[in-house]
Amino acid sequence: MSTPADRSxxxxxxxxxxxxxxxxxxxxxxxxxxxxxxxxxxxxxARDCGYEGLPADDAESLAEWxxxxxxxxxxxxxxxxxxxxxxxxxxxxxxxxxxAECALDLAEDSVVYAEVRFAPEQHLERGLxxxxxxxxTLLGFExxxxxxxxxxxxxxxxxxxxxxxxxxxxxxxxxxxxxxxDRGVVGFDIAGAExxxxxxxxxxxxxxxxxxxxxxxxxxxxxxxxxxxxEAIAFCGADRLGHGVRITDxxxxxxxxxxxxxxxxxxxxxKRIPLELCPSSNVQTGAVASLEEHPFDVLAxxxxxxxxNTDNRLMSATTMSGEMLALVRTFGYGWSDLERFTxxxxxxxxxxxxDRLRLIDDVVKPGYAVLIG
Length: 373
Description:
The protein is of the alpha/beta class. It has a single domain (26-354), classed as TIM Barrel, CATH 3.20.20.140. Helices cover 46% and strands 14% of the residues. It has 16 helices and ten strands. The chain has helices spanning 18-21, 39-49, 59-70, 75-80, 82-87, 92-108, 130-150, 170-179, 203-211, 226-235, 263-270, 279-284, 296-301, 320-331, 335-348, 353-372, and strands at residues 26-32, 111-118, 156-164, 185-191, 216-220, 240-243, 251-253, 259-261, 275-277, 306-308. Helix 8 (170-179) links the parallel strand 3 and strand 4 (185-191). The radius of gyration is 20 Å and the shape is globular.
């Protein structure tokens, strides 16, 4: 496999294939911890904790089941796959192991910064408190980061704490996010089925985040339309939109390719509100019909702040390199485009401005300069 160092004396752009993509520095903003477990780890943790509900008893078959179940075209069915992963993440050891392996797997794919989210309220079945759940998860991230460094790979991870939009604990989770923000938590999120659960039902949580000058993103515009996006930005004040693909409901493309943007779409673009787009997942959940019909390219050409994300690496059988390769093959992107999408993600990260600048100037730009040639 080629690496940037291998090209030190070469000129011209590197070929864009999975091998070279795995060497490119990447920034990931939308990745669910409980959607990225290794199949073998799911099996081992299930044995350790006595969970007997798995649909397969070997890693390969289990991986195939997750991909098939998640590819049903229904967000509700997609979310049901998490019953199995969450079930094996109920102990300190289970949480820490999953977090450590997440860090290692992302670092192996040359992800240099990632924001990984999970819902602490879903990990209380064996008596852990919310604080204990977050504590052990953050310890796992630290362990994985240290192990990655021993292997010569640098990664930084910020944790996002998610509240489930159908539940009534969002204010409590927002308080938890603020409580842990100097210990590895960088923001707050709400997730779950959108229909019937508008973000405005959680205003007190978002008000708490704003009162404490803390960051938050909102899953909006994935399975539900423009009203979800409008509420997320107009009433809740979201810093970013999780998915946001349905922003195209407010964009009219003319016969000649020109675009007319409605007021919501104009606002999202003008305010540079980042879109956490997850191409493979968006197809699996039925948010878009196919990758060819994904609005990523339209939004990129219209200069929305688009970012590339994995969402759930286990369910989508994907990586950041895989998502980038799919976009390259579908829309013909080159290294400069991928660099732009990566810089978009850095600019949108919930870390201090000087840290974002260092990532861009010291890591992303030099890494892509070698690949661009």
